[in-house]
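ok trying this again, last paste got cut off
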Amino acid sequence: MPGPVLSVTDSRTGRQYDFSIEEGTIRAIDLRQIKESEEDFGLMAYDPGFTNTACCRSEITYIDGERGILSYRGYPIGQLAERCDFMSVSYLLLHGELPDTKEYGNWASQIRQHLDVPENIQNLIGSFPQDGFSMGMVMSGVAALSSYYPEALDVEDEASRRLQIYRLVGKIPTIAAYVHRRKVGQPYIAPNKELSYAGNFLNMMFADDASYVVNSSIEKAMDVLFVLHADHEQNCSANAMRSVGTSRTDPYTAAAAAVGALGGPLHGGANEAVLRMLEKIGSKDRVAAHVKLVKEGKIRLMGFGHRVYKNYDPRAKIIKQLASQVFEVTGSNPLLDVALELERIALEDEYFVKRKLYPNVDFYSGLIYQAIGFPTDMFPVLFAIGRTIGWASQWDESLRDPERKIARPRQIYYGFPHREVPAQKSSDISE
């Protein structure tokens, strides 16, 4: 029995076309059948920003933006954040199942083995200007890894792919911490393989001497933040990783492209914009005036709304709770009161409710990062650490896809029509 079809009639020719509907989609290539004549190229779909284009099939992350649902491999994000650590979730994203005790131990051991970065990459980071762009330094460090592991180009070898993923996930926090230490003019701190993934990162960031001890509550918060940022379907940076990866280049080069995409203010830099907004508001009694300016279209409301979610971002609910726990350790921050008041007013105002503007993952995360002691230009770097396993899992999945092709979008050309170059030679033109 044939499945559902989309029937389209071309008003230009009167011809009817039937396209199979599978999983709520039609094949874009099927549109090429629609032609005015046999000489025509065929119809294309114009979709700036790929807002309604599925570029791949994936088993990794599911999002229902209307209902505010996010799950990894079928597990709700809230349960994962509450019951699993980042190492377990990383294993899940890559392998498809949560690890048992033995699998967890082997996986964590593999990551610990690859925490160190080559000395020359340390020197590379040390050569950058102290006030340089942190994400640019991280991107350079990640890209440089390809020079040390040329076997990574053999992307068809599954064992090699897994080894590169161990290296990426292991080394990204070390590169990130070294970038921070370079920027503050402090010596590098070698990875401590006795600590947890999050604990080791915090130690490399902030330990001034052997007496430093990672606070367990802060360590837990950092781990949860890594979990919440681990993957988010086909966002800009994940798409960059997949797209570059379709050329069969090594994963370090592809990951560097993903880091570059994440470094933009509309992606990984959004929580810094939220923090700046809260600082500008300054106090609870000024929130109403800020909201009024937003409704008048004079300023933007940062940290509200999402490209995918038309409901409360499920990650935002978790981070909101996390913020209170962190401030119990670090001390209160008056900006949290500003954020809570802003959220309260916005969620009760028909203007925002009608437009489905709810807090997103960036609304509270910047406050947490600031409280822990991270400078603002490190915010997207922290995002990148958690997201690396998502990028790597997306990349690995794409290489196993039997339908994979090199990414090659088409364009609509609207430049000059055919023109003839003048017969006059350049030598005839007087200077």
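PB: full thing came through this time. Residues 158-183 form the longest helix (26 residues).
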